[in-house]
Amino acid sequence: MLIGDVARRSGVSARMLRHYDSLGLVRPTGRSDAGYREYSSEDIRRIFHIESLRSLGLSLRDVRRAFDDPDFTPSELVDDLIRRTRERIAAETELLTRLRRIGAAEPAGWEDVLQIVALLQALGSKSAGKRQRAALSSVEEVPVPVEALVEAALSETDPNVAGALRWALAQSGEDGLALLAEGLGSPAAEVRERAVRSIAEIPNGGATALLRDALTNSDVAVRGHAALALGARGVADAVPTLVDMVVEGTNDVDAADALSALASRPASADQIAARLVDSLAHGAVEPSARRRLTQALAGIPGTTASRALTDLSHDEDRAVALTAAYILGIREA
């Protein structure tokens, strides 16, 4: 079969067939009566084999080695192809993400596109200073898509940059809440904590609802951050978690301050005092926890807290008794 016929039937151009010939991959083994080279059925079979291997991503150099090297190991080559394909997919996925983010920012012109690209690159910089400036600029200049801000906030390790990113997200309103909610379910504890801290700085009802949900999160750190944020917002649902934090000694001072803020209304004060007293009466509570609970009563106004402190001033634990007596002296002064 002459080269033109082979090209038509195989779908491989005559130019590429000549290139295969020059590389020694497929050389026509026959001759026509007129002296033209002819491809045998074996030659055509080899062409299809070459095309099959090329469809897997092999270079012509790899194909030739596969055919001619007696020590060639297909499994090693396939493993290498898998690695290279994954790298290529990762690169293409990164490019797709970047393009989507640029599109989401709805740039008005090429100047906006260039500014967005520069900010996205700065957010991924190794320099903490550049990342921080990019976070601040994302609000003051061309807006960076909230998806990029959330991704940066959930991966940021520098506290100053993290603070700037949380501030930038707070300016975006509810746009990033859905993505931050996904962060609360991350298998990485540090990501979960960054997510709840970012949500805590967004001042709207959607964020408050997410923080309420976070009170039942399996991660104690997430529950704690959510409770402190809700306490600052005056949400009574946080009280049980805040009391648990006092008992456990986890950010207990902040938790006690949050309970004090929530106890500004008389009805709330009595309920919070009653919960603290119930915890004090629990037989399994450690002596150190009882002292922290007694100290927490100092910030709770009302008769329930005062009666509890009077009783505690006669407690068998001298440290608890002295603490209660000291608090009563301040309250009565």
From TrEMBL:
Segments forming domain HTH merR-type: 1-69
GO MF annotations in UniProt: DNA binding; DNA-binding transcription factor activity
The protein's name in its UniProt record: Transcriptional regulator
Entry-linked PROSITE patterns: HTH_MERR_1, HTH_MERR_2
Pfam families: HEAT_2 (PF13646), MerR_1 (PF13411)
InterPro entries: ARM-like, ARM-type_fold, DNA-bd_dom_put_sf, MerR-type_HTH_dom, MerR_fam, PBS_lyase_HEAT
Keywords of this entry: DNA-binding
Taxonomic classification: Bacteria, Bacillati, Actinomycetota, Actinomycetes, Streptosporangiales
